[in-house]
Amino acid sequence: MKKLLRNILLAFIPVVLYYGVFIAFEPNNYFGLRPDAAGTGIMAVLRRYEKAPQSRIILGDSRLAQLDPDVIAAAGGGQWANLSYGGASLTEQLDLLQWALDTNEGLEEVLFMGSFYTLNAGYNHDRMLVRALNNPFVYMTNLGYNINMLTNLYDHLAPHRETGAGGETQDPADYVYVEYTDPASGQAVPMRDTMARHITEVYQRSRAWQLSEEFGRLLQLIDDCEARGVRFIVVLPPASNEVMDWVVAPLGIQAPMREVLAKLYATGALVLDYEFENRHLLREDQFYDGFHLDLERGLDAWCEMLFRAIAAGGEGASHVA
Amino acid sequence: MPTSAQSGLLAAAESVTSAWRMSFSSVHFLLFLPLVVAGFFLLPQKWRRAWLLLGSYYFYFFAAPKYLVVLLCGTLATWLLGLFIGRAAAGKPRRARMAFGVVLLVLGLCFFKYNGFFAAFLSPLFAAAGANYPGGYFTTAGALGISFYTFTAIGYLVDTARGDVPAEKNLLNFALFLGFFPSVTMGPISRAGGLLPQLQNPPAKFDAAGAADALRLAAAGYFKKLAVADTLAIFTTAVYGNITAYTGGTLTLAAAAFAVQLYFDFSGYTDIARATAQLLGIQLPQNFKNPYYATNFSAFWQRWHISLSSWLQDYVFTPLVWSRWTEKLPIIGKKVAKPPVLTSLAITFVLSGVWHGDGLCFLVWGTLQAAFRIGEEVLHRTLGKPKKNAGRAARAGKTAVVLVLWAESLVFFKMGMTPLPAGAGQGWAVKQAALALVRQFSPAGFARIGADISSAVQNGFYNDGLIAGAFILFCLVCTALALWADWAEHHRFGGQPFALQLGAFTPGARWGIYILLVVCCFAAFLAQSGGYGGASFLYGGF
Question: Which of the residues A141, A204, A207 would you substitute to probe the B interface, choosing the one with the greatest number of B C-beta atoms within 10 Å?
């Protein structure tokens, strides 16, 4: 029996060694073993937020993740903890909101991103962020965090120089026009390359659009926030004309989204809709692709517009009830 | 139909268990199993069966909380029916009681397994009458393992009526026989004569050598499931989820990949089930004997899901043939002189299809198996039986034909397992399967196939070319290793599991394989993010 147990332990030595490396090189300082906490991943951000909770939070996907805190402050928005990250689904956003409500009694204001793209029942991935935050086992077995660790390890073993500023900024190559073919009608139109690729992806993901059942949970959480005196703001970030013309219109998403918006307005929360109603406030050349604003000529301008509207209680982002 | 209080209780049970859902590939099971084994051997002999039953119901509760009550009722009903049959005089009275019991169990199976199918027709009728369909609560998912334990129960009743086994008087023994946790959810379908005596007299001492073999078998089972079947599933799920996006070679490759996935998924599960029972000193029957080396369908079905095919043979096919039921048919009955072998084969295979699921796809799949088996029988009758010592090339050719027909028929099986989109009827899945088969003939170059595989993996696994490439390489290496082990089992070890031969290897080779299995399983475990959201065992739904 002792021999059997010893052999089992011996067979698992590679796993034990791997986790030694994992703990040493995971970039989010999840275990709090390193004094620095400079990680930029969402897990590192959440760990920092846990230690120093703020009274205002932003929850959204990549469209809100790069909002500049200085621009927000200059627009009279004050200090916000931005808990947005690329590819966040509605389920993940709601889990984070619930977690913030449960753990931060001083929460006063929530800026929550809504969009036809994330309200789609088919866009329902769940990377167990909150579960990973609370359960080290979930964190240590999660594929994404393991890849982050291996990337970090690789960077330590073979340090490389940054090749320049990345991000979503148009360069001359993006002005190469390609032919975008509408899958429904077969009609071909010229379109900027980054835009055409993005429209193709958004169309595929939205093809069988149905309102997510999680929308009911969102309405419930808005009520909970109201009951707790937490100001709730829903923002629908801008979408380009191409998204409207080649995704929303042919797939018939506008009518159900009108109902969704009516329900959101009925909650009494402040709803700032740049996706359908206030799209005219942004020019086409301010977009990098169909959803993302150009970091240099679009994002800061919209960020300022958004936080001025929030400070003014919605003025500047009108809606027709 | 549950009252609101009962519904509340069931909902509470669901919420308690959802975070700790149990299956062989869950962390919960890896914590549960050592506790059950340790408790079993530490407790006095008289308490061991009770401990095992408690563990079995704990396992089932965390696997399918809503349906534990169904298992309990089924157990009590079958135990009483067994006593009822055992007390009757041999012959007609006993057969009548057996028939009553079998019908009752089949009705129960139909209600819980095919409820979704019935609900689609019956719910509107009940609604028109201003009432709710009483089975509505159970329509969301089938009762886990009900097909397996109902067939075990039917086998027990028939064996009791035939006098092959005495009716079990002890409810605890019987409950353990039907609910034994290693086999309750996905078999192997045990016979009363094989399992009940082992449970009545559990082993007195822990067998370290047997446990070492069991752990080797479990490691091989986890390798097949996690490193092979689950990684292939990423590709097959992506392809069959969007058939029109893929063409030619990709769909052919997906059909082959699904055949490999299904085999290693289910045989991996069986290895883990057998290993788990063996840790407790109990032997479960072997369920697979390298079926992909069979040279005809008759041999294939003696090697694939053996516990089900032998069950169908003993309790459906043979009784049908010897009942000479065709002679009792009006008009044509008088013209029939031979036992109805081919028609009984057809009925048995169609029944096998229906057993697998309530969709039309499974009916088509079962019918295809019947056609293959009957076609083979007709060929043998017209052309004569093939030579026993055929050359290697002839054997390889026949194996290839069996494999191709099997893999193509599994496209219907796969579509039967795929959830229907909202508003789609059963016909949709059959059409999709037919479309997948037809589109295999649309031309596509190697570059297109490569791009298809890459995009399927990037969509289903990780959206990064480098990671997806590493994953594909990992999947190929693990699949090749599993196929090699399967080849060695068939050609070198007389069909005995490869894992059980490891004890005879040199220590260096043996430890090399242990480490390889652990590393591959661990990597695959991480690829599924520790099972949080990972794939489930394919046969768990049957």
Answer: A141
